[in-house]
Amino acid sequence: MGKRDDLIEKYAEDLRKKCGMDPDMDLLKKVTIACGPSIYNRDSSTVSSGDKAELERVKANFVVKKLGVAEASADKGIDAAIETYGKSNRTKYRAVFYYLLTKQFKKEAVFS
Fold first, then answer.
1. Are 30 and 39 in contact (CB under 8 A)?
2. Does pTM surpass 0.85?
3. Structural domain total, the chain
4. pLDDT under 70: residue ranges of the chain
5. pLDDT in tens, 93-103
6. Which of 5, 35, 67, 108 is geometrically suited to a Cys-Cys bond with 1, CB 3.0 to 4.6 A?
7. Residues 102 and 108: beta-carbon distance below 8 Å
8. What is the CATH number of the domain that holds 39?
9. What is the pLDDT of residue 92?
10. What are the distances in angstroms from CA 53 to CA 23, 27, 47, 57, 83?
11. Distances from the Cα of 69 to the Cα of 4, 56, 76, 98, 103, angstroms
12. pLDDT (0 to 100) of residue 1
């Protein structure tokens, strides 16, 4: 198993324990791969849900560009993903957050 596979397992565990869901491992792997090298960097591998500028980047670059969601409905979905992951949870892995957004907006087909 490579480093990426280890991270995917860690993300799956996060989804089980912190989000209370059984992850679709195929989708999780595809979302993780789409995150690119950011998953290997300590700072870029997480999303700070308290940082408005970072959430705006997530909205613009992932939700609107990648998922094709209208900007007007993006904020509600981001808020729902934060709630699911847990507002008090300081470490929100980018791949898990993007997975939650993909599920929230029912955009699994983007990764098929």
1. no
2. yes
3. 1
4. 1
5. 999 999 999 99
6. 5
7. yes
8. 1.10.238.120
9. 95
10. 28, 27, 11, 6, 18
11. 28, 14, 11, 13, 12
12. 67
